[in-house]
Amino acid sequence: MMVAFQSKLIYLPYVPLDSRHEERTPEMSLEMDVEDVEVISSDKKKLRGMVVNPTLPSGPVMIYFQGNAGNMNHRLPLFKQMTTAVPNLTIAGICYRGFGSSLGRPSERGLEKDAQAILDWTYRKYSERPIFLYGHSLGGGVAAYLASNPVYSSKIRGVILENTYLSIQDMVTAIYTKWTPYPYIAKYFLWNRWPTKERIGHVSCPVLFLSSAKDEIVPPEHMETLYRICKQHQSNSHIASMPKSMHMDMYMADRNLYNQQVAQFLSLNEQKSS
Description:
This protein is of the alpha/beta class. It contains ten helices and eight strands. The chain is globular and about 55 Å long.
């Protein structure tokens, strides 16, 4: 069952209930300037989402890759806080295939194609502005894939990873003890692998690792290991531990420290080649 339905266990676009095709109300936008957008992937999947502050003339542009559940409407409070901390920030939040109102079914290869299409679309639209990637949890694996790909790395100024895992295999090992058959089964039968630990060493741009000290899903040791691997190849990387945060509440539980780290990272790396 775990092998046959692994995509259903990894990708949860229907959680919470009514997450698929949820309409955004004016109240959800929290008085932000939000534009609905559509991106077409290389295999013709329609990806739908939003851009916050779409018409700003300058400043950083952040592509936000979400975790494995919900839709971009659920991230609007986060986007509100980010744009308050960094007023000249534009955020592109476009749902993967099978999430929100995007068409298709999620898979590792499919999400990789989505990430490519979203970056290409953002680069065409904001070619004169520095582009950053932000990945939370599953989205960190997506961001690491994109930033480690030499075809796309030149378009990326920096990467922020929040509570990201080493790989799906390592997550199975962390959740299930060695006395269960699941780590062994996953070793041979996973087709959704997301090997972040293999890719992070090939990321050439600066990376900020944001780790929740009380993460109840991804062990904080995963982030520490990713940072150590990255630091060997990219000296301009930094890790910040958020002492009060769990997996999903970093921007609320450690609000001031979170705002400081994100704003400082964007400002520092935006200016380097501006």
